[in-house]
Amino acid sequence: MKPIHYRDFDILIIGEIFVEFASNRSIAHAHEFSKDAGGADVYVASAAARLGSSVAMLSSIARDPFHSFLREQLLAQGINIDHVNTTQGYNGIYFTSSRNVDEREYLYHRPGSASESIAPAMVYDDLIENAKIIYASSELQSVSKAARHSIFKAFTHAHRNDIMVAYDPNLRLNRWSLDDAKEGLWSVLPLIDVFFPSAPDESKALFGYERPLDVIGFLWDRGVSIVAVKSGQNGCLVGYDGKIEEFPQLPLETPDPNLTLIGSSFNGGFLHNIASGKDPFSAAELANKVAFAKACRKGGLASLPAIEDIA
Questions:
Q1: With contact defined as beta carbons under 8 Å apart, do 129 and 106 qualify?
Q2: What is the arithmetic mean of pLDDT over 79-85?
Q3: C-alpha angle 164-166-170 in degrees, rounded to nearest 5
Q4: Are strands 18-23 and 92-97 parallel, antiparallel or unpaired?
Q5: Could you tell me which residue, 281 or 311, shows the higher pLDDT?
Q6: Angstrom distance (rounded) from CA 18 to CA 33
Q7: Please, which residues bridge with residue 57 across strands?
Q8: Does the pLDDT at position 299 exceed 80?
Q9: Which CATH number do you get for residue 90?
Q10: Do β-strands 79-87 and 55-62 pair in parallel, antiparallel, or remain unpaired?
Q11: In 3-state terms, what secondary structure has residue 138?
């Protein structure tokens, strides 16, 4: 295996790729939508890449009318797509609205989508060993058993070779049941080094705890080294090496903040700093800046900041 400073990728993200249609009006009443590549995992990859990390994705894109568009959008973010397969079928799409700050709207359509072709055969040892960090979320786990097995295979090989494993439970009960989400989470929990839960609703549903402090203790007891509990506009609480620090978020003064997939944008900023050799507390500070910058800007992936925007 290559020494860590010789690996080609800072972060390898195993995830799902969508076409995003966004509006600042409610989905039902909007007449115009902006189009972009999207999905939680794409936002993690793009946030890290725009900050300067070397990022690769392992995924699939269907050969439908959006095929070239999606590949071009990912390349424009600086994401390596050598391990993004082309498959038959259709690409998943979703509609989102930033109109309601307290309850963001998402409407997904993905039956028969490209991500269903993601299988363990796509995960091979040399690819995992060529990255500093392996990341996935439950977004891909919810697609199929093959997708769950793919993530498990990648995480297992990374764990056995002391490669950092990062995960976001990203609970979406409109996509699968709570029991299935728990099964997906518990299957990989012993392999995870960096965990990105959200509180209070997600953490209560998955673990029975609402307070970020309790969530950190729960996950520490199960061997997770770094826990960053996201609490929306309240910022985050980070636990590492027996220490816990709180990182409040700056107040949003814009009347219609751009909160689409802001938690995934936070993850990308956090992992960028970890891959750069920074400690988790410095990573949280940067991740908060990434999330704040995105919230203040309009647009999809283009709203994610470059490093010079937040230095």
A1: no
A2: 97
A3: 175
A4: parallel
A5: 281
A6: 15
A7: 13
A8: yes
A9: 3.40.1190.20
A10: parallel
A11: helix
Distance CA 269, CA 166 (A): 13
Per the structure, the count of domains in the chain is: 1
Q: How far is CA 176 from CA 93, 97, 129, 184, in A?
A: 17, 22, 31, 11
Give residue-wise pLDDT tens across range 184-232. Answer: 999 999 999 999 999 999 999 999 999 999 999 999 999 999 999 999 8
In a 13 Å sphere around the CA of 292, the CA atoms on its Cβ side amount to: 19
Dihedral sign for Cα 191, 133, 307, 262, please.
negative
- For residues 202 and 169, the answer to whether their CB atoms sit within 8 Å is yes
Distance CA 63, CA 91 (A): 8
The pTM score is 0.95
- What integer is the mean pLDDT of 273-299? 95
Pair 206, 182: CB distance under 8 Å: yes
Query: In this structure, is residue 155 part of a structural domain?
Result: yes
Using DSSP, state whether 220 is helix, strand or coil. Answer: helix
Say which residues have a Cβ less than 8 Å from residue 167's Cβ, sequence separation at least 6: 135, 136, 137, 155, 188, 192, 194, 195, 196
Whether residue 253 has pLDDT greater than 80: no
- pLDDT number for residue 100: 63
Strand partners, 309: none
Range of the domain at 276: 4-303
Q: The tokens of 237 are what?
A: 């609480």
| Strand residues in the chain grouped as ranges (E) | 9-14, 18-23, 34-38, 55-62, 79-87, 92-97, 105-109, 131-137, 164-168, 194-195, 226-230, 236-240, 243-247
309: in domain: no
- Per-residue model confidence as pLDDT tens digits over 124-143: 999 999 999 999 999 999 99
The answer as to whether 295 is a domain residue is yes
